[in-house]
Amino acid sequence: QVQLVESGGGLVQPGGSLRLSCAASGFTFSRFVMSWHRQAPGQERELVATITRTGGSTNYANSVKGRFTISRDNAKNTVYLQMNSLKPEDTAVYYCNAGGGEPWNDYWGQGTQVTVSS
Hints:
Strand content: over 45%
Number of strands: 11
Radius of gyration: 14 Å
């Protein structure tokens, strides 16, 4: 069955870095657009970053542009989110999403907590 398993979250001080990973299985990873989303307490889930099927194009929310980098390894069925210069407002549960197929399917991981605090 389809699985998206995030890892790499944790507690980090402001200005620090974390690298999230999302390991995919149960579908043809290279045919899906991958993205990272986040949801802070009391707030709606928001799109953080997106990467195309080949990794040739990426897009970022304005709030993370220049600090976060999304990448993927289609040989390993894994998507990454490198997060640098972390701020307290980056604190949230981070979710991995896969979108694609015919008809369109949306798959979600279970989320990984990122807490930025001194």
